[in-house]
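Exercise (ungraded).
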Amino acid sequence: AQSVTQPDIHITVSEGASLELRCNYSYGATPYLFWYVQSPGQGLQLLLKYFSGDTLVQGIKGFEAEFKRSQSSFNLRKPSVHWSDAAEYFCAVALYSSASKIIFGSGTRLSIRP
Amino acid sequence: SAVISQKPSRDICQRGTSLTIQCQVDSQVTMMFWYRQQPGQSLTLIATANQGSEATYESGFVIDKFPISRPNLTFSTLTVSNMSPEDSSIYLCSVDRTLASTDNEQFFGPGTRLTVL
């Protein structure tokens, strides 16, 4: 069965430090991969997505993610975090076959240390 | 892109009652989905709302508890029936592939925050 694993429940980094959020997926074919962010009391916003092509994907707010097929990973990175980046981050995989639907990881809560 | 609205944005309900949540999209879309996000948890897909036919439910979700309608390509409803406190969650509508687009992306509504007493 398809699944998405985010091994880190909660991460705290200092403002200005670099960030990497881990994501591993299990899927037989090449998946469609996403990172979403959910700020407190806010809706879900798409940061970036990967369908095919260049394995390094640029997103909004200075985020990027790299698809590594050999490791079944799609880690999210940002070179320098801002206090406003504190939020819940969800990795997700979409199954575009007969009915597209998204499977979400459990999420990683990011806290920023001043 | 697609702009999605949900009504109500939040509600507090009594045990044993039912609540119908509406999802309206500003353009015609092929796929509509309903998700549940329990407190402190991730999103779980409830069902795919199919236009003109019965919804397709995920494991653990049944039509009697979560009846869904989708009368056209821009509107869907989710009813949470015979509610219990365990149904307290955020319910999100999402859509995929506006008919005018070939891009593969899902857009999410703002969610409906439900509290059951």
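Further reading is listed at the end of the chapter. For now, observe: The interface with chain A takes residues 31, 33, 41-45, 48, 56, 92, 94, 96-97, 104-111 of chain B (CB under 8 Å). DSSP finds no helices and eleven strands in chain B.
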